[in-house]
Amino acid sequence: MIARLLIRIVALAALAYLVLPLVVIIGASLTETSYLAFPPQGLTLKWFGVLFDDPSYVSAFITSTLLALAATGVAVLLAVPASLALARYVFAGRAAVSSLLMSPLVLPYVVLGAALLQFGNDFGLARSFEALLVGHVVIVMPFVLRSVLPLLTPEQRALEEASADLGGRPLTTFFLVVLPQIRGGIVSGALLAFISSWINVELSIFNTTSALNTIPVKMFNYVQYTIDPTIAAVSAITIVAAALVIILLDLLIGLDMLSERQQP
Amino acid sequence: MTAPRTTLALLLFAPLAFFAAFFLAPMAVVALSSLTTDEGGPTFAHYARILFDQYHWDVLWVTFRIALATTALCLLIGFPLAWYLVRIVRWRSWRRACVILIVVPLFTSNIVRSFGWMVLLGRTGLVNQGLMGMGLTERPIRFLGTETGILIGMVYILMPFVVLSVGNALAKIDTALEDASADLGVGPARTFWFVTLPLCLPGAVSGAIMVFALAVSAYVTPALLSGGQITVFSMLIFQQYSSVFDFHYGGALSVTLLVLTLILVTLAGRIGERGRRAA
User: Fold this and answer.
1) Residue ranges per domain, chain B?
2) Does domain B54-278 have CATH number 1.20.1600.10?
3) Which ranges carry the ABC transmembrane type-1 domain (chain A) (predicted)?
4) b/e burial code for range B149-173 (CB count within 10 A of at least 16 → b)
5) ipTM topping 0.90
Protein backbone atom coordinates (compact mmCIF):
# COMPACT_ATOMS: atom_id res chain seq x y z
CA MET A 1 0.00 0.00 0.00
CA ILE A 2 2.89 2.33 0.74
CA ALA A 3 4.26 1.55 -2.71
CA ARG A 4 0.90 2.44 -4.23
CA LEU A 5 0.76 5.74 -2.39
CA LEU A 6 4.32 6.52 -3.43
CA ILE A 7 3.53 5.79 -7.08
CA ARG A 8 0.50 8.05 -6.85
CA ILE A 9 2.58 10.91 -5.43
CA VAL A 10 5.35 10.54 -8.02
CA ALA A 11 2.80 10.31 -10.83
CA LEU A 12 0.88 13.40 -9.78
CA ALA A 13 4.13 15.32 -9.30
CA ALA A 14 5.23 14.22 -12.77
CA LEU A 15 1.95 15.41 -14.27
CA ALA A 16 2.37 18.77 -12.56
CA TYR A 17 5.92 18.93 -13.90
CA LEU A 18 4.59 18.35 -17.42
CA VAL A 19 1.92 21.01 -17.21
CA LEU A 20 3.70 23.74 -15.24
CA PRO A 21 5.81 25.33 -18.02
CA LEU A 22 2.85 25.47 -20.38
CA VAL A 23 0.68 27.17 -17.77
CA VAL A 24 3.45 29.63 -16.97
CA ILE A 25 3.87 30.58 -20.63
CA ILE A 26 0.18 31.10 -21.23
CA GLY A 27 -0.07 33.10 -18.00
CA ALA A 28 2.96 35.23 -18.80
CA SER A 29 1.60 36.09 -22.24
CA LEU A 30 -1.34 37.87 -20.61
CA THR A 31 0.68 40.25 -18.45
CA GLU A 32 0.28 44.01 -18.83
CA THR A 33 3.91 44.67 -17.94
CA SER A 34 6.44 45.09 -20.73
CA TYR A 35 8.70 42.52 -19.05
CA LEU A 36 7.81 38.91 -18.50
CA ALA A 37 5.91 38.35 -15.26
CA PHE A 38 4.34 35.29 -13.75
CA PRO A 39 1.84 35.37 -12.17
CA PRO A 40 0.75 37.99 -14.77
CA GLN A 41 0.15 41.50 -13.55
CA GLY A 42 -3.18 42.55 -14.99
CA LEU A 43 -4.74 40.79 -17.93
CA THR A 44 -4.39 41.91 -21.53
CA LEU A 45 -4.29 40.46 -25.02
CA LYS A 46 -2.18 43.30 -26.40
CA TRP A 47 0.91 41.11 -26.94
CA PHE A 48 -1.04 39.00 -29.39
CA GLY A 49 -1.92 42.20 -31.24
CA VAL A 50 1.76 43.21 -31.37
CA LEU A 51 2.45 39.86 -32.97
CA PHE A 52 -0.12 40.12 -35.71
CA ASP A 53 1.10 43.62 -36.56
CA ASP A 54 4.62 42.33 -37.12
CA PRO A 55 4.97 41.24 -40.77
CA SER A 56 8.02 39.07 -40.00
CA TYR A 57 5.95 36.94 -37.63
CA VAL A 58 3.11 36.70 -40.08
CA SER A 59 5.41 35.62 -42.90
CA ALA A 60 7.21 33.10 -40.67
CA PHE A 61 3.83 31.72 -39.70
CA ILE A 62 2.88 31.34 -43.37
CA THR A 63 6.24 29.71 -44.25
CA SER A 64 5.94 27.23 -41.38
CA THR A 65 2.40 26.27 -42.32
CA LEU A 66 3.11 25.88 -46.05
CA LEU A 67 6.26 23.92 -45.29
CA ALA A 68 4.48 21.56 -42.91
CA LEU A 69 1.58 21.06 -45.34
CA ALA A 70 3.85 20.39 -48.32
CA ALA A 71 6.19 18.10 -46.38
CA THR A 72 3.25 16.10 -45.02
CA GLY A 73 1.67 15.80 -48.47
CA VAL A 74 4.86 14.57 -50.14
CA ALA A 75 5.61 12.26 -47.22
CA VAL A 76 2.18 10.61 -47.47
CA LEU A 77 2.57 10.15 -51.23
CA LEU A 78 5.93 8.45 -50.69
CA ALA A 79 5.11 6.51 -47.53
CA VAL A 80 1.91 4.80 -48.67
CA PRO A 81 3.48 2.96 -51.65
CA ALA A 82 6.57 2.22 -49.55
CA SER A 83 4.49 0.64 -46.79
CA LEU A 84 2.55 -1.42 -49.32
CA ALA A 85 5.84 -2.71 -50.71
CA LEU A 86 7.19 -3.49 -47.24
CA ALA A 87 4.02 -5.20 -46.04
CA ARG A 88 3.18 -7.16 -49.18
CA TYR A 89 6.44 -8.34 -50.67
CA VAL A 90 9.34 -10.43 -49.55
CA PHE A 91 12.43 -9.27 -51.40
CA ALA A 92 16.17 -9.10 -51.05
CA GLY A 93 17.14 -6.02 -49.06
CA ARG A 94 13.70 -5.58 -47.51
CA ALA A 95 15.17 -5.12 -44.04
CA ALA A 96 17.69 -2.61 -45.37
CA VAL A 97 14.98 -0.59 -47.14
CA SER A 98 12.86 -0.57 -44.01
CA SER A 99 15.70 0.58 -41.75
CA LEU A 100 16.77 3.21 -44.28
CA LEU A 101 13.28 4.71 -44.41
CA MET A 102 12.89 4.59 -40.60
CA SER A 103 16.39 5.81 -39.74
CA PRO A 104 15.56 9.55 -39.63
CA LEU A 105 13.75 8.76 -36.36
CA VAL A 106 17.02 8.14 -34.53
CA LEU A 107 19.50 10.21 -36.56
CA PRO A 108 20.60 13.55 -35.16
CA TYR A 109 18.62 16.25 -36.98
CA VAL A 110 21.56 18.62 -36.61
CA VAL A 111 23.65 16.30 -38.77
CA LEU A 112 21.00 16.03 -41.47
CA GLY A 113 20.44 19.79 -41.43
CA ALA A 114 24.15 20.47 -41.83
CA ALA A 115 24.36 17.83 -44.58
CA LEU A 116 21.50 19.40 -46.53
CA LEU A 117 23.07 22.85 -46.26
CA GLN A 118 26.40 21.61 -47.55
CA PHE A 119 24.82 19.43 -50.24
CA GLY A 120 22.51 22.27 -51.24
CA ASN A 121 25.47 24.65 -51.55
CA ASP A 122 26.94 22.42 -54.23
CA PHE A 123 23.69 22.49 -56.22
CA GLY A 124 22.49 26.04 -55.59
CA LEU A 125 19.66 24.67 -53.48
CA ALA A 126 20.82 25.95 -50.10
CA ARG A 127 18.70 28.30 -48.00
CA SER A 128 15.58 27.93 -50.10
CA PHE A 129 12.07 26.67 -49.47
CA GLU A 130 12.91 23.56 -51.50
CA ALA A 131 15.93 22.80 -49.31
CA LEU A 132 13.73 23.06 -46.22
CA LEU A 133 11.05 20.95 -47.85
CA VAL A 134 13.19 17.95 -48.82
CA GLY A 135 14.69 17.80 -45.33
CA HIS A 136 11.30 17.95 -43.70
CA VAL A 137 9.96 15.20 -45.97
CA VAL A 138 12.84 12.95 -44.93
CA ILE A 139 12.27 13.45 -41.21
CA VAL A 140 8.46 13.21 -41.21
CA MET A 141 8.08 10.23 -43.55
CA PRO A 142 8.81 7.62 -40.84
CA PHE A 143 5.82 8.85 -38.84
CA VAL A 144 3.44 8.08 -41.71
CA LEU A 145 5.17 4.79 -42.42
CA ARG A 146 4.96 3.76 -38.80
CA SER A 147 1.24 4.41 -38.51
CA VAL A 148 0.25 2.88 -41.86
CA LEU A 149 2.33 -0.32 -41.74
CA PRO A 150 0.55 -2.00 -38.79
CA LEU A 151 -2.78 -1.66 -40.61
CA LEU A 152 -1.64 -3.71 -43.60
CA THR A 153 -2.43 -7.04 -41.92
CA PRO A 154 -3.11 -10.46 -43.48
CA GLU A 155 -6.85 -9.96 -42.81
CA GLN A 156 -6.74 -6.72 -44.73
CA ARG A 157 -4.86 -8.57 -47.47
CA ALA A 158 -7.66 -11.12 -47.78
CA LEU A 159 -10.16 -8.39 -48.69
CA GLU A 160 -7.75 -7.06 -51.26
CA GLU A 161 -7.48 -10.49 -52.87
CA ALA A 162 -11.24 -10.87 -52.79
CA SER A 163 -11.53 -7.65 -54.73
CA ALA A 164 -8.97 -8.87 -57.27
CA ASP A 165 -10.81 -12.19 -57.60
CA LEU A 166 -14.01 -10.33 -58.35
CA GLY A 167 -12.23 -8.64 -61.23
CA GLY A 168 -11.21 -5.37 -59.51
CA ARG A 169 -8.23 -3.82 -61.26
CA PRO A 170 -5.25 -3.00 -59.03
CA LEU A 171 -5.90 0.74 -58.93
CA THR A 172 -9.62 0.26 -58.36
CA THR A 173 -8.84 -2.15 -55.55
CA PHE A 174 -6.41 0.32 -54.04
CA PHE A 175 -8.80 3.24 -54.00
CA LEU A 176 -11.97 1.35 -53.07
CA VAL A 177 -10.62 -1.34 -50.73
CA VAL A 178 -7.15 -0.58 -49.40
CA LEU A 179 -7.35 3.17 -48.97
CA PRO A 180 -10.51 3.18 -46.82
CA GLN A 181 -8.88 0.54 -44.61
CA ILE A 182 -5.67 2.45 -44.00
CA ARG A 183 -7.22 5.92 -43.92
CA GLY A 184 -7.06 6.11 -40.12
CA GLY A 185 -3.33 5.36 -40.17
CA ILE A 186 -2.73 7.93 -42.89
CA VAL A 187 -4.62 10.61 -40.99
CA SER A 188 -2.89 10.03 -37.66
CA GLY A 189 0.51 9.65 -39.35
CA ALA A 190 -0.06 12.82 -41.35
CA LEU A 191 -0.99 14.77 -38.22
CA LEU A 192 2.15 13.58 -36.44
CA ALA A 193 4.16 14.46 -39.55
CA PHE A 194 2.61 17.92 -39.77
CA ILE A 195 3.33 18.66 -36.12
CA SER A 196 6.92 17.39 -36.25
CA SER A 197 7.57 19.59 -39.24
CA TRP A 198 5.85 22.58 -37.65
CA ILE A 199 7.91 22.47 -34.47
CA ASN A 200 11.29 21.58 -35.97
CA VAL A 201 14.28 23.79 -35.24
CA GLU A 202 17.38 21.61 -35.51
CA LEU A 203 16.89 20.78 -39.18
CA SER A 204 15.40 24.06 -40.37
CA ILE A 205 17.90 26.35 -38.71
CA PHE A 206 20.61 25.60 -41.29
CA ASN A 207 18.55 26.53 -44.30
CA THR A 208 16.58 29.50 -43.03
CA THR A 209 17.44 33.16 -43.60
CA SER A 210 16.02 36.34 -42.10
CA ALA A 211 13.71 36.57 -45.12
CA LEU A 212 12.79 32.88 -45.20
CA ASN A 213 12.10 31.87 -41.65
CA THR A 214 9.93 29.41 -39.80
CA ILE A 215 8.18 30.22 -36.54
CA PRO A 216 10.28 27.94 -34.29
CA VAL A 217 13.60 29.12 -35.77
CA LYS A 218 12.53 32.74 -35.47
CA MET A 219 11.58 32.15 -31.85
CA PHE A 220 14.85 30.37 -31.18
CA ASN A 221 16.93 33.24 -32.55
CA TYR A 222 14.82 35.76 -30.66
CA VAL A 223 14.72 34.04 -27.30
CA GLN A 224 18.50 33.75 -27.10
CA TYR A 225 18.76 37.53 -26.85
CA THR A 226 15.47 38.86 -25.54
CA ILE A 227 12.76 37.49 -23.34
CA ASP A 228 9.58 39.51 -23.40
CA PRO A 229 5.82 38.97 -23.43
CA THR A 230 5.66 38.81 -27.27
CA ILE A 231 7.64 35.59 -27.29
CA ALA A 232 5.34 34.25 -24.58
CA ALA A 233 2.39 35.18 -26.82
CA VAL A 234 3.78 33.24 -29.82
CA SER A 235 4.46 30.31 -27.52
CA ALA A 236 0.98 30.48 -26.07
CA ILE A 237 -0.52 30.36 -29.57
CA THR A 238 1.47 27.23 -30.43
CA ILE A 239 0.47 25.57 -27.15
CA VAL A 240 -3.21 26.29 -27.63
CA ALA A 241 -2.99 25.12 -31.26
CA ALA A 242 -1.27 21.90 -30.18
CA ALA A 243 -3.89 21.28 -27.50
CA LEU A 244 -6.69 21.79 -30.04
CA VAL A 245 -5.07 19.40 -32.53
CA ILE A 246 -4.70 16.78 -29.82
CA ILE A 247 -8.27 17.07 -28.62
CA LEU A 248 -9.32 16.75 -32.27
CA LEU A 249 -7.11 13.68 -32.69
CA ASP A 250 -8.54 12.19 -29.52
CA LEU A 251 -12.09 12.66 -30.77
CA LEU A 252 -11.21 11.30 -34.23
CA ILE A 253 -9.13 8.25 -33.44
CA GLY A 254 -8.99 8.06 -29.65
CA LEU A 255 -5.60 8.73 -28.14
CA ASP A 256 -6.15 6.69 -25.03
CA MET A 257 -3.83 3.85 -25.96
CA LEU A 258 -3.41 2.94 -22.30
CA SER A 259 -6.86 1.44 -21.77
CA GLU A 260 -6.47 -1.63 -23.97
CA ARG A 261 -6.17 -3.95 -21.00
CA GLN A 262 -9.04 -6.37 -20.62
CA GLN A 263 -10.87 -5.64 -17.41
CA PRO A 264 -11.32 -8.90 -15.46
CA MET B 1 -2.23 -8.03 -63.67
CA THR B 2 1.29 -6.72 -63.56
CA ALA B 3 4.03 -9.01 -62.43
CA PRO B 4 4.86 -8.67 -58.69
CA ARG B 5 8.37 -7.52 -59.55
CA THR B 6 7.16 -4.60 -61.66
CA THR B 7 4.63 -3.59 -59.01
CA LEU B 8 7.27 -3.72 -56.33
CA ALA B 9 9.60 -1.55 -58.40
CA LEU B 10 6.80 0.93 -59.07
CA LEU B 11 5.93 1.14 -55.37
CA LEU B 12 9.47 1.57 -54.15
CA PHE B 13 10.93 3.72 -56.91
CA ALA B 14 9.79 7.14 -55.69
CA PRO B 15 10.49 6.73 -51.95
CA LEU B 16 13.90 5.19 -52.55
CA ALA B 17 14.87 7.75 -55.18
CA PHE B 18 13.85 10.54 -52.79
CA PHE B 19 15.84 9.11 -49.90
CA ALA B 20 18.85 8.50 -52.13
CA ALA B 21 18.83 12.06 -53.42
CA PHE B 22 18.02 13.99 -50.26
CA PHE B 23 19.21 11.75 -47.47
CA LEU B 24 21.96 9.37 -48.57
CA ALA B 25 23.61 11.79 -51.01
CA PRO B 26 23.85 14.70 -48.51
CA MET B 27 25.18 12.31 -45.87
CA ALA B 28 27.73 11.00 -48.38
CA VAL B 29 28.82 14.56 -49.16
CA VAL B 30 29.40 15.18 -45.46
CA ALA B 31 31.30 11.92 -45.02
CA LEU B 32 33.42 12.66 -48.08
CA SER B 33 34.28 16.20 -47.03
CA SER B 34 35.24 14.96 -43.58
CA LEU B 35 37.94 12.88 -45.27
CA THR B 36 39.30 15.48 -47.67
CA THR B 37 41.36 18.66 -47.52
CA ASP B 38 40.41 21.98 -49.08
CA GLU B 39 42.34 20.92 -52.17
CA GLY B 40 40.42 17.66 -52.38
CA GLY B 41 43.17 15.28 -51.28
CA PRO B 42 42.36 12.52 -48.81
CA THR B 43 43.19 13.14 -45.15
CA PHE B 44 42.40 11.91 -41.67
CA ALA B 45 43.48 15.20 -40.13
CA HIS B 46 39.96 16.29 -39.19
CA TYR B 47 39.33 13.10 -37.28
CA ALA B 48 42.78 13.27 -35.70
CA ARG B 49 41.90 16.76 -34.54
CA ILE B 50 38.84 15.35 -32.76
CA LEU B 51 40.53 12.21 -31.44
CA PHE B 52 43.63 13.84 -30.03
CA ASP B 53 42.07 16.91 -28.52
CA GLN B 54 41.06 16.72 -24.87
CA TYR B 55 38.43 19.41 -25.42
CA HIS B 56 36.37 17.17 -27.69
CA TRP B 57 36.49 14.32 -25.22
CA ASP B 58 35.31 16.69 -22.50
CA VAL B 59 32.40 17.88 -24.62
CA LEU B 60 31.52 14.30 -25.56
CA TRP B 61 31.63 13.28 -21.93
CA VAL B 62 29.32 16.14 -20.92
CA THR B 63 26.96 15.27 -23.78
CA PHE B 64 26.79 11.60 -22.88
CA ARG B 65 26.58 12.28 -19.16
CA ILE B 66 23.58 14.55 -19.70
CA ALA B 67 21.98 12.04 -22.10
CA LEU B 68 22.48 9.13 -19.69
CA ALA B 69 21.15 11.05 -16.72
CA THR B 70 18.20 12.22 -18.81
CA THR B 71 17.39 8.65 -19.84
CA ALA B 72 17.70 7.35 -16.28
CA LEU B 73 15.52 10.10 -14.82
CA CYS B 74 12.94 9.70 -17.59
CA LEU B 75 12.65 6.02 -16.74
CA LEU B 76 12.62 6.68 -13.01
CA ILE B 77 9.79 9.24 -13.23
CA GLY B 78 8.08 7.94 -16.34
CA PHE B 79 7.67 4.37 -15.11
CA PRO B 80 5.61 5.24 -12.01
CA LEU B 81 3.51 7.65 -14.07
CA ALA B 82 2.80 4.96 -16.67
CA TRP B 83 2.01 2.48 -13.90
CA TYR B 84 -0.31 4.97 -12.25
CA LEU B 85 -2.19 5.60 -15.48
CA VAL B 86 -2.57 1.95 -16.46
CA ARG B 87 -2.94 0.21 -13.11
CA ILE B 88 -4.17 2.71 -10.55
CA VAL B 89 -6.47 5.14 -12.35
CA ARG B 90 -9.96 3.65 -12.48
CA TRP B 91 -11.79 6.60 -13.97
CA ARG B 92 -11.46 6.43 -17.75
CA SER B 93 -12.04 10.14 -18.38
CA TRP B 94 -9.25 11.12 -16.00
CA ARG B 95 -6.90 8.71 -17.74
CA ARG B 96 -7.90 10.19 -21.07
CA ALA B 97 -7.26 13.70 -19.75
CA CYS B 98 -3.85 12.58 -18.44
CA VAL B 99 -2.90 11.09 -21.81
CA ILE B 100 -3.79 14.40 -23.44
CA LEU B 101 -1.70 16.26 -20.85
CA ILE B 102 1.26 13.99 -21.64
CA VAL B 103 0.91 14.39 -25.38
CA VAL B 104 0.42 18.18 -25.50
CA PRO B 105 4.07 18.93 -24.61
CA LEU B 106 5.17 16.48 -27.34
CA PHE B 107 3.25 18.55 -29.86
CA THR B 108 4.82 21.82 -28.79
CA SER B 109 8.17 23.02 -30.01
CA ASN B 110 11.32 22.40 -27.97
CA ILE B 111 11.76 26.14 -28.00
CA VAL B 112 8.47 26.81 -26.33
CA ARG B 113 9.07 24.17 -23.69
CA SER B 114 12.63 25.24 -22.98
CA PHE B 115 11.49 28.83 -22.88
CA GLY B 116 8.98 27.89 -20.20
CA TRP B 117 11.84 26.57 -18.09
CA MET B 118 13.96 29.65 -18.78
CA VAL B 119 11.18 31.64 -17.16
CA LEU B 120 10.62 29.17 -14.32
CA LEU B 121 14.27 28.58 -13.45
CA GLY B 122 15.46 32.19 -13.54
CA ARG B 123 16.82 33.95 -10.46
CA THR B 124 13.41 35.38 -9.65
CA GLY B 125 11.50 32.56 -11.32
CA LEU B 126 8.71 30.57 -9.75
CA VAL B 127 10.98 27.67 -8.76
CA ASN B 128 13.34 29.87 -6.77
CA GLN B 129 10.44 31.81 -5.27
CA GLY B 130 8.89 28.52 -4.21
CA LEU B 131 12.12 27.16 -2.76
CA MET B 132 12.77 30.35 -0.83
CA GLY B 133 9.14 30.60 0.28
CA MET B 134 9.40 27.11 1.75
CA GLY B 135 12.63 28.12 3.43
CA LEU B 136 14.61 25.46 1.57
CA THR B 137 17.19 27.95 0.43
CA GLU B 138 18.35 31.38 1.58
CA ARG B 139 19.50 32.75 -1.74
CA PRO B 140 18.21 31.93 -5.23
CA ILE B 141 19.82 28.80 -6.66
CA ARG B 142 21.47 29.18 -10.04
CA PHE B 143 19.83 26.73 -12.48
CA LEU B 144 20.35 28.38 -15.85
CA GLY B 145 23.80 27.69 -17.20
CA THR B 146 24.22 24.54 -15.10
CA GLU B 147 23.87 20.89 -15.99
CA THR B 148 20.99 20.63 -13.50
CA GLY B 149 19.06 23.23 -15.47
CA ILE B 150 19.70 21.44 -18.77
CA LEU B 151 18.69 18.17 -17.17
CA ILE B 152 15.39 19.56 -15.86
CA GLY B 153 14.54 20.78 -19.36
CA MET B 154 15.65 17.61 -21.15
CA VAL B 155 13.80 15.23 -18.83
CA TYR B 156 10.74 17.40 -19.21
CA ILE B 157 10.92 17.24 -22.98
CA LEU B 158 11.67 13.55 -23.36
CA MET B 159 9.71 11.91 -20.54
CA PRO B 160 6.44 11.59 -22.51
CA PHE B 161 8.17 9.08 -24.84
CA VAL B 162 8.93 6.78 -21.92
CA VAL B 163 5.48 7.13 -20.38
CA LEU B 164 3.79 6.27 -23.66
CA SER B 165 5.95 3.29 -24.56
CA VAL B 166 6.01 1.81 -21.04
CA GLY B 167 2.30 2.51 -20.65
CA ASN B 168 1.58 0.72 -23.91
CA ALA B 169 3.55 -2.32 -22.82
CA LEU B 170 1.91 -2.35 -19.37
CA ALA B 171 -1.56 -2.10 -20.86
CA LYS B 172 -0.94 -5.17 -23.00
CA ILE B 173 0.18 -7.42 -20.13
CA ASP B 174 -2.30 -10.14 -19.33
CA THR B 175 -2.90 -9.75 -15.58
CA ALA B 176 -3.73 -13.47 -15.40
CA LEU B 177 0.03 -14.07 -15.45
CA GLU B 178 0.47 -12.00 -12.30
CA ASP B 179 -2.50 -13.71 -10.67
CA ALA B 180 -0.96 -17.08 -11.48
CA SER B 181 2.29 -15.97 -9.87
CA ALA B 182 0.40 -14.84 -6.76
CA ASP B 183 -1.55 -18.10 -6.65
CA LEU B 184 1.72 -19.96 -6.60
CA GLY B 185 2.56 -18.12 -3.40
CA VAL B 186 4.99 -15.56 -4.83
CA GLY B 187 4.99 -12.17 -3.07
CA PRO B 188 4.01 -8.98 -4.92
CA ALA B 189 7.60 -7.66 -5.04
CA ARG B 190 8.96 -10.86 -6.54
CA THR B 191 6.02 -11.09 -8.96
CA PHE B 192 6.78 -7.56 -10.10
CA TRP B 193 10.47 -8.32 -10.48
CA PHE B 194 10.16 -11.67 -12.25
CA VAL B 195 6.87 -11.38 -14.14
CA THR B 196 5.72 -7.81 -14.74
CA LEU B 197 9.05 -6.08 -15.23
CA PRO B 198 10.40 -8.50 -17.89
CA LEU B 199 7.11 -8.22 -19.76
CA CYS B 200 7.30 -4.45 -20.03
CA LEU B 201 11.05 -4.35 -20.60
CA PRO B 202 10.83 -4.15 -24.41
CA GLY B 203 8.57 -1.09 -24.10
CA ALA B 204 10.90 0.51 -21.58
CA VAL B 205 13.96 -0.21 -23.73
CA SER B 206 12.45 1.18 -26.91
CA GLY B 207 11.36 4.30 -25.02
CA ALA B 208 14.81 4.64 -23.46
CA ILE B 209 16.56 4.26 -26.83
CA MET B 210 14.43 6.99 -28.32
CA VAL B 211 15.10 9.27 -25.36
CA PHE B 212 18.82 8.59 -25.43
CA ALA B 213 19.17 9.15 -29.18
CA LEU B 214 17.23 12.40 -28.95
CA ALA B 215 19.16 13.53 -25.86
CA VAL B 216 22.59 12.93 -27.40
CA SER B 217 21.73 15.00 -30.45
CA ALA B 218 19.63 17.64 -28.68
CA TYR B 219 20.55 21.16 -29.60
CA VAL B 220 17.77 23.58 -28.75
CA THR B 221 17.24 22.75 -25.09
CA PRO B 222 20.92 22.74 -24.08
CA ALA B 223 21.52 25.88 -26.15
CA LEU B 224 18.75 27.78 -24.39
CA LEU B 225 19.24 26.48 -20.86
CA SER B 226 23.04 26.49 -20.86
CA GLY B 227 23.23 30.24 -21.30
CA GLY B 228 26.49 29.72 -23.20
CA GLN B 229 28.12 28.13 -20.14
CA ILE B 230 28.01 24.50 -21.18
CA THR B 231 28.82 23.04 -24.58
CA VAL B 232 27.31 19.85 -25.93
CA PHE B 233 28.40 18.07 -29.08
CA SER B 234 25.64 19.29 -31.39
CA MET B 235 26.64 22.88 -30.59
CA LEU B 236 30.13 22.20 -31.95
CA ILE B 237 28.60 21.02 -35.20
CA PHE B 238 26.33 24.01 -35.42
CA GLN B 239 29.23 26.40 -34.84
CA GLN B 240 31.21 24.90 -37.71
CA TYR B 241 28.33 25.19 -40.16
CA SER B 242 26.91 28.53 -39.11
CA SER B 243 29.84 30.72 -38.13
CA VAL B 244 33.19 29.04 -38.80
CA PHE B 245 32.19 27.55 -42.18
CA ASP B 246 34.72 24.73 -41.95
CA PHE B 247 32.70 22.02 -43.67
CA HIS B 248 35.54 19.47 -43.49
CA TYR B 249 35.93 19.68 -39.75
CA GLY B 250 32.17 20.10 -39.29
CA GLY B 251 31.68 16.99 -41.40
CA ALA B 252 34.06 15.01 -39.21
CA LEU B 253 32.15 16.15 -36.12
CA SER B 254 28.84 15.18 -37.74
CA VAL B 255 30.09 11.73 -38.68
CA THR B 256 31.44 11.23 -35.16
CA LEU B 257 28.06 12.08 -33.58
CA LEU B 258 26.25 9.93 -36.13
CA VAL B 259 28.44 6.88 -35.61
CA LEU B 260 28.35 7.17 -31.81
CA THR B 261 24.57 7.48 -31.82
CA LEU B 262 24.16 4.50 -34.13
CA ILE B 263 26.49 2.34 -32.04
CA LEU B 264 24.62 3.17 -28.85
CA VAL B 265 21.19 2.69 -30.38
CA THR B 266 22.22 -0.69 -31.80
CA LEU B 267 23.72 -1.75 -28.47
CA ALA B 268 20.60 -0.77 -26.57
CA GLY B 269 18.51 -2.63 -29.15
CA ARG B 270 20.58 -5.77 -28.57
CA ILE B 271 20.11 -5.51 -24.83
CA GLY B 272 16.37 -5.08 -25.31
CA GLU B 273 16.30 -8.10 -27.61
CA ARG B 274 18.07 -10.23 -25.03
CA GLY B 275 15.63 -9.06 -22.33
CA ARG B 276 12.72 -10.02 -24.57
CA ARG B 277 14.12 -13.47 -25.21
CA ALA B 278 14.78 -14.04 -21.52
CA ALA B 279 11.23 -13.04 -20.68
Assistant:
1) 54-278
2) no
3) 61-252
4) bbbbbbbbbbbbbbbbbbbbbbbeb
5) no
